[in-house]
Design brief:
mainly beta; TIM Barrel; 12-stranded antiparallel beta sheet; 7-stranded antiparallel beta sheet; 55 strands; 12% helix; binds beta-D-galactopyranose; binds magnesium ion; carbohydrate binding
């Protein structure tokens, strides 16, 4: 007999968004529920209409079968824009993996007489529910829960069999075409709960900045009419708010109508309310009780309430009347072992990390996240742009106006709003991502605007029609990857009507996020610009066993450290599971590694978001500024640190002035600047003074820095008489500690930005990766040896001059390179050499301690640093240029017996010391393929190209390019 649910073929019927599903609501039923997580019987069918009847294996719920052995050969697949199959919407392919999950559930006997509900946290992409063989319901939307009333299906005290059939490909897949791995399974918890027949069907909390609190309750009774005399009450932090006498029968002319509607409101004004914002996320505990006519409690709903306002005034987005900067990131639900299932602890760790690095906002790209994420955002203080699960990227144009999908658009947006409306953290609704713009969007926007007038709405696809267009479904101009100049021009045009907050900017793929500081300089100096969301939080690398190519799954726990997979494992990206169609490493574009290890860009971001800044140094004092919106500086402690070029570092406690947000104060230097010591830098090490919810006391929050004294200009010293420099016939320096003499380098292992931005292609056309060196002359003049060489590429020749002069203890190298006009944008101009093995410690005076580049160096203060060479390298998933340090003045590279080399540079330069040649990095596709060399590969660059973000978005700014023409640099090499 055909199953009635399958007979509908709901996987190819976009009009069918659900059947038998209860309305979405904001009542949390997790506590007191019967959890149904754990191992379920499982079989994977080749298609949804294939018969069930094969052998059962088992699968862990919540989880995706694509990451578990039960999934056999249906492995993760990564595509960005394109669908993984050619069928047009609403069709799905004939080969359509379908997971059948089954388990028993013992319905408690004390649930007799109660209303019983099954909740499936999330299933992708179509869920069919049967209980004891009876069809119960259908649901779509892979990122929202579905509830089904089982009161008449199960019997308390008895055992029932629940079967969840999950169809992987469907009409819904065409509107879930987000840039991420494709999986199949049940990704969030399943539970069974019971309520009284008289129950709270929904609770809507509106808590305003002025203390006004409205709690609207929707009450239902499964027996039909509501009993005469029911009422609701609420208490806030234990203080009773209102009781029966005060409740207000909304929309009702007489009591009968109100009872019939089942609507009630608790209304109160809280005096001296502590308000909520991302800096001080004050929450109150609200308990709503539904009473039977005799006063006994039938149902309870608990909420954490934050009093705050959000509004747009002119072109400013205001939170509690303040024009807040949005320092956001896009976050997917991702985990390297489970794919899509994330635990509460994982989400907490994500958000804690974001707070520590100065973020104050998340866009839930590109679907409603796990409900716990919003609880955590409320608690830790993060603004949320809550985004509906709609992305039809590959077929955007067809779907946006397709009436068959109208219902799905409204369903997805409205259910998100109904679920998340009570979270103070949610300040903006988003209609979805990259789905063109059509009538289906306007329909969904209409629903939101009527239902929740308290929050702005955004949609990039609509904003694209015109940033200032009042008629499109976006209250915010929210472009993606708009160049800084375009944003500034818009803000200055006089045409701007909406806040400009980029929904995606600064693409974090590989070694990236160049010009982040330039973005923020523009934002903070241009009224109308308010921030944006970095793309994105995660590198979605899946932990994979190299031996059999399968996901390590939950067994991989702990098999990674510091961003690197354990031996025998790697971080898989697109193509690594043998998918013929994929989009490669484009899935690895986050500010954290797959194990949440911070990439260097996070330190850059932290500094740009610093709550305390040093404005300038003048008259023996500095000007400090409070850059927060709501908080004083009393939650911070500080120490000053003075770094002198001569190697001295002096520190002491620093007193932070009492500054309100936006205020500045002149503060005298807490020490006398020593007369000698050369170049001098003052760093303020700012830490949390007490425990914060997201950082224990003493956590560094920022380290603003100011230069107190510039380096004196020094003339190069005279040649050391009587000493010689050895240069061979090929014009190469001979030095006992170098295994490869310094030669010219114009190439770097292309970053993802270099590759996808087409920049590396130009370098290859010019032959910069295969330059052929030819020595032209070697001239001895006194103690000085001058070498002229030519480096021939396919498109031109570079003339390189090196002058070697013996100096006390070593050699001074003075170089110049003349790039022909054809080479007008190269990776670097500088020297590269290699050292003997054993020089494993780098000490330097310059920017650090983490990796920095010319257009990503604001977060790396000047100081004296020391790190093992092996820790200098950043293990980006796809090997590329990495490990650079900007602004290096001098460094020593030493062995454990203190032998080694010291290099002094004529001016602060980009330096890198790694175990890899540029060609080693270029040849490897994954980090685990790299074989470290014994010695060090040292680059000193006269000029190094900025990183930009051209893998998706603008390239670096012109000022960070390395142009053609003559470049000069000099350095001194000494043995220790
Ligand atoms: C955007 C898109 C994101 C992601 C990003 C590139 O266009 O909204 O989902 O694909 O580009 O990584
Ligand atoms: Mg996309």
């Amino acid at each position: 007999m055909t199953d009635p649910l399958s007979a509908l073929r709901p996987w190819e019927a976009p009009e069918v968004t659900s059947w038998g599903r209860l309305p979405m609501n904001a009542v949390d039923r997790r506590s007191g529920a019967l959890p149904l997580d754990g191992d379920w019987r499982f079989q994977l069918l080749p298609a949804p209409d294939a018969p069930v009847g094969g052998a059962w294996s088992s699968s862990y719920v919540p989880g995706v079968w694509t990451m578990q052995s039960a999934g056999a050969d249906d492995l993760p697949q990564y595509t960005n824009v394109r669908m993984p199959y050619t069928e047009f919407p609403p069709q799905s392919p004939a080969a359509n993996p379908t997971g059948v999950y089954e388990r028993e559930m013992d319905v408690p006997d004390d649930w007799a007489g109660r209303r019983i509900v099954l909740q499936v946290g999330a299933a992708e992409s179509v869920l069919l529910v049967h209980v004891d063989g009876r069809p119960v319901g259908i649901s779509k939307d892979s990122h929202l829960a579905a509830e089904f009333d089982l009161t008449d299906v199960v019997r308390p005290g008895e055992r029932s069999v629940v079967r969840l059939t999950v169809v992987k490909w469907s009409d819904a897949s065409h509107i879930e075409d987000q840039d991420q791995w494709w999986h199949g399974g049940i990704t969030r918890s399943v539970l069974l709960y019971a309520t009284d027949p008289l129950y709270l069907a929904d609770v809507t909390v509106r808590a305003a900045y002025d203390g006004d609190l409205r709690v609207d309750c929707r009450v239902r009774d499964t027996r039909g009419a509501l009993p005469e005399g029911w009422y609701v009450s609420g208490d806030l932090d234990g203080r009773l708010l209102a009781q029966d006498t005060e409740f207000d029968r909304v929309n009702a002319e007489d009591d009968r109508v109100s009872d019939f509607l089942g609507e009630a409101r608790v209304h109160a004004t809280i005096p001296d309310v502590r308000t909520w914002n991302a800096e001080t996320p004050e929450l109150y505990d609200l308990t709503v009780r539904l009473h039977r006519p005799d006063g006994t409690v039938a149902d309870i709903s608990r909420h954490r309430v934050g009093f705050r306002d959000v509004e747009i005034v002119g072109r400013d987005l205001l939170v509690n009347g303040e024009r807040v900067y949005i320092r956001g990131v896009n976050r997917h639900d991702f985990h390297p072992l489970t794919g899509r299932t994330v635990s509460y602890d994982d989400m907490r760790a994500d958000l804690v990390l974001l707070k520590r690095f100065g973020f104050n906002a998340i866009r839930t790209s590109h679907y409603p996240n796990d409900p716990a994420l919003y609880d955590l955002a409320d608690e830790l203080g993060l603004y949320v742009v809550d985004e509906a699960d709609i992305e039809s990227h590959d077929h955007a144009h067809e779907i946006a106006d397709d009436p068959r999908y109208l219902n799905a658009f409204v369903d997805r947006v409205s259910r998100m709003v109904l679920r998340d409306k009570n979270h103070p953290s949610v300040i903006i609704w988003s209609l979805g991502n990259e789905s063109d713009y059509g009538a289906n969007h306007d329909a969904a926007a209409g629903w939101v605007r009527r239902h929740d007038p308290t929050r702005p709405l955004q949609y990039e696809g609509a904003a694209k029609r015109g940033w200032a267009d009042p008629d499109v479904a976006s209250d915010i101009a929210c472009p993606m990857y708009a160049p800084i100049v375009d944003c500034v021009a818009h803000a200055l045009s006089g045409e701007q009507t909406k806040p400009l907050i980029q929904c995606e900017y600064s693409h974090a793929m590989g070694n990236s996020n160049g010009t982040l500081a330039d973005h923020w300089a523009a934002i903070e100096s241009t009224p109308g610009l308010q921030g944006g969301f970095i793309w994105e939080f995660w590198d979605h690398g899946i932990l994979q066993r190299v031996s059999d190519g399968r996901p390590a799954g939950r067994a991989g726990a702990g098999l990674y450290d510091n961003g690197v997979a354990a031996p025998g494992h790697r971080w898989a990206y697109g193509g690594d599971f043998g998918e013929p169609l994929h989009d490669g490493a484009f899935i690895a574009d986050g500010v954290v590694f797959p194990d949440r290890t911070a990439k260097p860009v996070l330190y850059e971001h932290r500094e740009l978001a610093a709550p305390v800044r040093i404005r300038c140094y003048q008259h023996e004092g500095i000007v400090l500024a409070n850059h927060q919106h709501f908080r004083g500086l009393d939650w911070l402690a500080a120490r000053w640190e003075l770094s002198l070029a001569d190697g001295r570092v002096l520190t002491g406690p620093a007193e932070l002035p009492d500054l309100r947000p936006g205020e500045t104060a002149a503060v005298p230097l807490p020490f006398t600047l020593p007369e000698d010591g050369g170049e001098a830098w003052l760093t303020l090490r700012v830490t949390t003074a007490e425990d914060e919810a997201w950082a224990p006391r003493g956590t560094e929050v920022c380290a603003p820095q100011v230069r107190l004294r510039a380096a004196a200009v020094t003339e190069p010293g005279p040649a050391a008489p009587g000493r010689t420099v050895r240069v061979d016939d090929d014009g190469l320096l001979v030095h006992p500690l170098l295994t490869a003499a310094p030669v010219l380098s114009l190439w770097r292992a292309p970053t993802d930005n270099d590759e996808l931005g087409g920049i590396a292609r130009r370098w290859r056309t010019w032959g910069l990766d295969t330059l052929v060196r030819k020595v032209v002359s070697v001239r001895h003049e006194g103690e000085t040896v001058t070498v002229l060489a030519e480096y021939a590429g396919t498109a031109g020749v570079v003339r390189h001059r090196q002058e070697f002069t013996p100096v006390e203890g070593g050699v001074r190298v003075t170089e110049s390179a003349e790039l022909p006009p054809e080479f007008d944008d190269v990776a670097r101009v500088g020297s590269v050499f290699e050292t003997v093995p054993g020089l494993d410690l780098l000490e330097w005076f310059g920017q650090g301690p983490w990796e920095s580049y010319p257009d990503r160096s604001t977060g790396a203060p000047v100081g004296h640093y020391a790190l093992p060479v092996d820790e200098l390298f950043t293990p980006y998933l796809r090997p590329q240029e990495s490990g650079g340090r900007h602004g290096v003045r001098r460094f020593r590279l030493s062995a454990s017996d203190a032998t080694g080399i010291a290099v002094e540079l004529d001016e602060p330069r980009q330096v890198s010391v790694t175990r890899y040649r540029a060609e080693d990095l270029t040849a490897a596709a994954h980090h685990d393929e790299l074989v470290p060399r014994q010695g060090c590969v040292v680059h000193l660059d006269a000029a190094h190209r900025g990183l930009g973000t051209a893998s998706c978005g603008p390239d670096t700014a012109p000022s960070y390019l390395v142009p053609a023409g003559v470049h000069r640099w000099s350095w001194t090499l000494r043995a220790l």
